[in-house]
Structure formats: C-alpha cells, structure tokens
C-alpha cells in the first residue's frame, strides 16, 4: 500500500484527490489530511479514510476537530507548525493543494523526506521555484505538476529531449469575462467573477481565471518548473478548455494534450505516475465537439499577462512580490474594497514601488527571503488600497 497525505484535503483539489484514492480500496493508506475551518468535512474525510492524523490550519478549530474525531483513532493537531510536522511524516506521495502562499511551507517540508510531491499549489513555484527544485534535488524527491496545463506539458514531454523544444503554449479558457468589453469589466461583481464557464474550482482560482491572474501565475510556473526561457512560453485563449497545453519542437511538430475539463485527469496522472490507471473522467467525443477555437490573449484587457512577463524577466524575489500583491488584491476585491480592474492596478503599483525601493531581482537564497518579500508586498498593498477606492 502506498502511503499518501493530502494537504488542502477539504478544497476542490483535495476532494477530487480523495475521490480518486477512495476508488481504489487497498491501494493507498492515508497518513495526513489537512483543512481549514471546514472541520466537519475534514473529520468526515479522516474517518472515511482512517487517516493517521488530521490537521486544521486554525488553532481555534482544534477543539471542534478533536470532538468531531473522538473515538476515531485519528490524531488531531492545529496550526502552521502542525502542518509542517504532518508533512514530515513519512509518505510515498503528498498532494500539495492548500490555496495561496500558505501552501509553500508544508510542500517544502514534504520534499525534505524525499517524497513524490504532487504540486497543485502553483504559488509554491511562483514564489520560490528555484528553492523548491533545489530542495527536491537535495533529497532525491520528485515534483509532479498538477495544474492541468503543466500536467499536459509534462505528458507531452515524456521521452522527448528538452533541447528540441521550440515553444510551449498553455491554453486559457478566458474565465467568466472572456467576452466582456473593458467598460463592463469595471463593474464586474464578486459573484459574477466567482463562476467559471468550464471548470469547477475553489473561489480564489476562479476569480483569478476571470482576471487572467491565474494564467499569469501559470506562465511563471511554466518557466520555473520546466526551465524554458520566457520567450518560448505563451498563453492562448481556447474557450472550450479541451486542449490544456501544446509543446512545439524544432521540427515544427506540435504535441497537444486533450482531455475533458476535469481536474481528476491531472490529479490522477500524478497519483498513478509513472503508470496510467483508469480514471472516472469523461472521454472526449471529437465529432460531437466538432471544432476547437483559439484567440489571442488580450494584454490590454488583462494586464496580468504583461505583469507575468515582467516577473519572469526579473526573477528572484519578483515572483513572491507578485503573488503576495495578487493575493492582497484578491482579498480586497472579495471584501468589496476595490473593483475588479483595480486588482491589476494594485499589483502594478506594488511591483513598481517595490522595485524602486528594494529592487526585485535578488536571487532567492532561502525561504525567509520569500516570506519577507511576501510581507512587504502585502503591507504595501494595504497602503495603496485606499487610493484605489472609487
Ligand atoms: P480551495 O479554496 O477549494 O481549497 C483550499 C484548501 O486549502 C482547503 O482545504 C482550505 O481549508 C485550505 N486552506 C485555505 N487557506 C489555508 C491556510 N491559510 N493554511 C492552510 N490551509 C488553508 O482551493 P482549490 O481550488 O482546491 O485550489 C488549491 C490549490 O490548487 C491552489 O493553489 C490553486 O491555485 C491550485 N489549483 C487548483 C485547481 C482547481 O481546479 N481547483 C486547478 C489548478 C491549480
Ligand atoms: Mg491551470
């Protein structure tokens, strides 16, 4: 039996991961499960999978978790340190699916025990890519991408020589507002931004899809994970979300990865790697689909993509500053403190200011540099927010 842990078990990715694990009784033993305030679900998952330990991120939720798991034989714990301790428990496979920069530390810790880390938490690569890859190498650990685009690129590259790659194209559904004119985007509400035309995901990544910040993160993620130079990486809008990414080679061949927009494709590929197993996903009927369409990703309407180019060119601490500013902008938008288009303006302002005051290209030496940059960017964002209120 393979020992597996799932961080962010109660979220969209976590629930899908446990769905796949649950379909193969006897194949996996669940070590650690983590969640946030959704204690009821976490406890139910821990009982169902007979987890060794269940961890809530919030110390004020510990008692509730303890009560919910009374008599279950599952240990309980709470807080950031507890998450790290749980990530250090020996496991063959660890899913990193906490949302936001908070997912970095547990994933990093898991690498130090030489495990296979299935990485859904894109913030880890955006904020600390080089540190993460170095940590994996140091401990003989492996990182498998779970973001659908990166799983697709990874699969298109199996058996290929990286030196023969000419370009990488990741697709973007375009999110909730792909057909909205700029004027209308100003008025977009949180509820409107929180519905996705193709994918069912957590609220934060759904809003990031509407603003294209998700695609911006994924461009940076592609550069960090695969090591291709930024000029080889592009995003194309593909409203049907059937092709997840394409890899172009120097002979002109373009290898595309197709699949239904269901995250269990990418999660299952990472879970079963290097084998393939049956997955409960819809098979594409090409005749029924009829045609696939593509359009240019519009940088004027979505400044996030332009910012991603700047971050990739700058490197170093720029990724951590970008992600923290983006998280702060998203918090402010969800709290209705700023408008939809203000998110791009806020991130631009924070990056400009940080670059002027601190410089952003300093190579990352340790996680502390990431955390410090993150804290500075969030504080700066709080200062800028009042000036954006309209
Ligand atoms: P979600 O909001 O549905 O779930 C997030 C999980 O993280 C929950 O278990 C929550 O309790 C936990 N969590 C939240 N804040 C936390 C904190 N401060 N400390 C510890 N735990 C915390 O999110 P999701 O959509 O499942 O996304 C998870 C990650 O996977 C994100 O990084 C996202 O960008 C990435 N991702 C998601 C999808 C998708 O389809 N949902 C696709 C690609 C990548
Ligand atoms: Mg994605």
TrEMBL record:
One GO biological process term: isopentenyl diphosphate biosynthetic process, methylerythritol 4-phosphate pathway involved in terpenoid biosynthetic process
Catalytic activity: 2-C-methyl-D-erythritol 4-phosphate + NADP(+) = 1-deoxy-D-xylulose 5-phosphate + NADPH + H(+)
EC number: 1.1.1.267
InterPro entries referenced in this protein's UniProt entry, alphabetically: DXP_reductoisomerase, DXP_reductoisomerase_C, DXP_reductoisomerase_N, DXPR_C, DXPR_C_sf, NAD(P)-bd_dom_sf
Residue positions binding 1-deoxy-D-xylulose 5-phosphate: 122, 148-149, 173, 196, 209, 214-215, 218
Cross-referenced Gene3D superfamilies: 1.10.1740.10, NAD(P)-binding Rossmann-like Domain
A Pfam family this chain is assigned to: DXPR_C
Positions with a binding annotation for Mn(2+): 147, 149, 218
NCBIfam families, per the entry: Dxr
Family membership: Belongs to the DXR family.
Biological role: Catalyzes the NADPH-dependent rearrangement and reduction of 1-deoxy-D-xylulose-5-phosphate (DXP) to 2-C-methyl-D-erythritol 4-phosphate (MEP).
Name of this protein: 1-deoxy-D-xylulose 5-phosphate reductoisomerase
Gene coding for it: dxr
